[in-house]
Design a protein that fits this description.
The complex is a heterodimer. By secondary structure, chain A is α/β, with parallel strands linked by helices. Chain A is 34% helix and 15% strand. Chain A is built from 19 helices and 14 strands. Helices cover 29% and strands 27% of the residues of chain B. The longest helix of chain B is centred in the C-terminal third of the chain and has 14 residues. Classes of the chains: A alpha/beta, B alpha/beta. Chains A and B meet through helix 13 of A and helix 2, strand 8, helix 9 and helix 10 of B.
């Protein structure tokens, strides 16, 4: 796929990957073998009918391709950009056994962008069924759940604490990977389905989950509030100025537009020498954002090696191209004070890989006597997050030991009618996994409500499902 | 599993505020206490009902603005409004001082945030408010009064002309000590002098609540430490989202890292590392000063501000006002 040159793009928030042209897309679509027993579908967390949408592209039925995707995934322009395809659909692709796998993600993105450009939407006229659904959090899990429930005819309201919807897609993922205009367009598509977005609403504190069910008349509620609560390491110097979480850096830059300070009021002092701790996708975003904010040197500090890095291959590759310095097998010991309360550098120690730990990855062990220091005036933590406590603080909902919401196999929580999915259940994961959880919760909610299309949707004892009076039936 | 069918929407106060309508945060009243301090009463029936003492909100005055945390100074479920008292010291708050008139709307208003203050069983409490902490002290004093405690209010101002809400405080307190720097009203001195008086007069003082600039809260905590009087403070670090997501508001409490937005903002004053808090409040001092300078030059103020007005008076006082 065409990309902006590394030197040029490393100073700009314009999107790195330019997207396929029609010719690119047609040529790539030709490469799909249209396997009768497609492995790619099984590799997709939401089971998109991949051969079908690619076949439609080849047949120049672009609208048909869009419909084939949106039958299971309403947000192709987003997923085409941010899914880790190499470990999902493309990782399972048969063509990939001998050649480059079919670029499913890029094709999906091309279809998604085409749909946005043409103004297509998957809004179908649905018969309202009278059920009211409340969704807490407007990130990928909430959006996916909202889409499915709205398509089933429910009246859906999505609550968001920030001033605009989108969740981590907006505040976390930078524009050069996923432009905010794309997210807004996909959100508009949800609005066309009848989904309402209510921003500036901190559920839990403004009203509780229990109030949503008992007083506000929601028949079912989905909680997709994300993980939040960034982890720190507990090493000396963490409260120095210049030390911040990747979430803070990214939120200031992406959502609050601190990169355009002073046209926008939110400040963000850009470091000249930035060190980012961690090597996941969030770390890659923080590294590349720091470059674009004008840092002269950007270091990535990770205690394992490149092979264990959790970031997507493409992200790592892009970061390397743009000039990020990677320090593999390096662990921070202390952040150094300049005497005025600011970070001036970092003391680290080299690591070596030992026997596998509980995660199955080799355990990094410090190499004695290998401590060293280097200069940096900004340190960004991207080492994961803990559970956000607000929902747990404000309701009687069941939590697990780590503070995440505990759910059963159907994603039902301990509160009747309340379902949950995404990072608030699993801890930090990917956008598509959150979407998958949102869709799974939607299936469970439909079953719980007795909406057709689910297992109990047919006539039961000769009584039509639209009467929805199973409770009484059961009692009888 | 119990399966519900659609049922009519139950009637409740939540129902009257249709959650489906776009939120507007209309300013319904404004009062100017001085050149710098002003009060905004904003319509938000849901929040007025949900708010508890000690909680705060985050405000954005316009789409390009920054999110600033402000502690609730009052809330009235009956009227459906919340009250904010703001000191115009930084770019955002000065801009708000000009733009936020009755009938205008805030771009964003989210809350109530933070864990509500625990209104304990203490029979005699002192509520100390200084600087920006004067107004947010009021809900706490009122709650203790309603809980049956003997409430000693201690509020500090620079001089007589800047005193506000005296009647309101008298209604919530059994005893009110007004402190002014120049002695033009009440006693001459700062709020810690008032607190010392109260400690001397009331050996049975069971709890102190202090809200204000960190240096003031630190002094209050030190004043009570020897006697072992429980002292709660409301910290005010730099914040972005207010929902626990960014960690910008982290403070050291008893050697542990806590997030003021979701673990606080109230903490045990004897445990808070105030030096750490004060250092972290200076994070954006340079940018804030530059923004204020730029704004002052560009906006159509009738009179150019005196050069000293551009100096941020005190990095600690400045924070809740952005």
């Amino acid at each position: 796929m065409p990309e902006r040159p590394a030197k040029e793009r490393a100073k700009s928030f314009q999107e790195v990957a330019c997207g396929y042209t029609l010719e690119n897309a047609l040529r790539e679509a030709q490469r799909c073998l249209l396997c009768p027993d497609p492995k790619c579908i099984a590799g997709c967390p939401v089971s998109i009918d991949i051969p079908e949408f690619i076949r439609r592209i080849s047949a120049k039925d672009y609208r048909g391709a869009y419909d084939a995707i949106t039958a299971t995934n309403l947000l192709p322009a987003i997923c085409g950009r941010v899914c880790p395809q190499e470990s999902q659909c493309e990782g399972a692709c048969i063509v990939g056994d001998t050649l480059e796998p079919v670029a499913v993600g890029r094709l999906e993105r091309w279809v998604g962008d085409k749909a946005l450009a043409e103004g297509w939407s998957s809004a179908t006229s649905v018969e309202p069924n009278g059920f009211r659904i409340g969704i807490v959090g407007s990130g990928p899990a909430g959006m996916a759940c909202a889409a499915d429930m709205a398509k089933a005819g429910c009246e859906v309201t999505v609550y968001e604490a920030f001033q605009e919807p989108g969740g981590v897609l907006k505040y976390g993922i930078p524009d050069f990977r996923l432009p905010n205009t794309v997210i807004d367009a996909e959100i508009d598509n949800l609005r066309k389905l009848g989904v309402k977005f209510e921003c500036n609403t901190l559920v839990g504190r403004l009203f509780t989950l229990e109030q949503m069910i008992d007083e506000m008349g929601y028949h079912a509620v989905f909680v997709g509030t994300g993980a939040g609560y960034p982890s720190m390491m507990g090493i000396p110097g963490e409260s120095l100025n210049g030390v911040l979480s990747a979430n803070e850096l990214l939120t200031r830059c992406n959502l609050l537009r601190a990169r355009d300070f002073p046209q926008f009021d939110t400040p963000l002092p850009a470091g000249r020498h930035v060190a980012v701790i961690g090597s996941g996708n969030t770390a890659m975003d923080a590294l590349r954002v720091s470059l674009r904010l004008g840092a002269e040197k950007v270091h990535c500090i990770y205690r394992r090696s490149r092979a264990e890095s959790p970031a997507r291959a493409e992200e790592l590759h892009h970061a390397e191209e743009e000039g990020v310095e990677f320090h593999w097998l390096t662990s921070p010991l202390e952040i150094l004070d300049d005497g005025k309360g600011n970070a001036r550098g970092m003391r680290c120690i080299r690591m070596q890989l030992g026997a596998p730990d509980s995660s199955g990855r080799p355990r990094p062990e410090p190499v004695a006597g290998s401590e060293f220091e280097f200069a940096c005036d900004m340190v960004v933590y991207a080492i994961g997050t803990n559970a956000n406590p607000i929902i747990g603080q404000t309701s009687k909902i069941g939590l697990n030991k780590k503070g995440y919401l505990s759910v059963d196999d159907e994603l039902a929580t301990s509160l009747a009618g309340v379902f949950a999915g995404g990072d608030i259940v699993t801890g930090a994961a990917t956008v598509i996994e959150a979407m998958g959880a949102g869709r799974k919760a939607a299936r469970s909610m439909k079953e719980y409500l007795g909406i057709s299309g689910s297992a109990v949707g047919k006539k039961l004892f000769g009584i039509d499902s639209s009467q929805h009076n199973y409770a009484r039936l059961r009692a009888a | 599993m119990y399966i519900k069918g659609p049922r009519p929407r139950p009637s409740s106060i939540l129902d009257k505020v249709n959650p489906g309508t776009p939120s507007v945060f209309e300013i319904v009243a404004r009062e100017d206490f001085s050149d710098a301090t002003f009060l905004l009463e904003v319509r938000h029936p849901l929040m007025a009902r949900a708010a508890r003492p000690g909680q705060f909100v985050i405000v954005m005055s316009h789409p390009e603005g920054e999110r600033i945390p402000l502690t609730l100074a009052d809330f009235d479920a009956r009227k459906g409004t919340i009250t904010l008292v703001i000191q115009a010291v930084g770019k955002t708050t000065r801009e708000m001082q000009q733009a936020c008139q009755v009938g205008t709307r805030l771009h964003a208003l989210v809350g109530p945030m933070g864990v509500p203050s625990v209104i304990g069983k203490a029979t005699k409490v002192a509520c100390v408010g200084g600087g920006l902490g004067v107004a947010p002290m009021f809900p706490q004093a009122r709650a203790y009064k309603q809980a049956g405690a003997y409430v000693i209010g201690i509020v500090g101002f620079r001089s007589r002309g800047l005193v506000f809400w005296e009647d309101k405080f008298r209604s919530a307190c059994d005893e009110l000590i007004v402190c002014t720097n120049d002695g033009s009203a009440g006693i001459r001195g700062i709020v810690t002098d008032g607190l010392q008086l109260a400690l001397k007069k009331h050996p049975d003082l069971a709890e102190v609540i202090a809200i204000g600039p960190p240096i003031m809260m630190k002094a209050c905590a030190e004043a009570t430490r020897a006697r072992g009087v429980k002292t709660m403070v409301s910290v005010n670090p730099v914040m972005v989202d207010g929902t626990g997501m960014c960690g910008g508001c982290r403070v050291k409490v008893g050697g542990k890292v806590k997030f003021a937005c979701v673990d606080g903002p109230d903490f045990d004053g004897h445990q808070v590392d105030f030096d750490d808090l004060m250092a972290r409040l200076k994070r954006f001092a340079e940018q804030e000063k530059a923004a204020l300078q730029r704004w002052s030059e560009s906006c159509r103020m009738q009179e150019p501000p005196a050069p000293e007005a551009l100096e941020l008076p005190d990095p600690f006082e400045e924070v809740r006002g952005g």
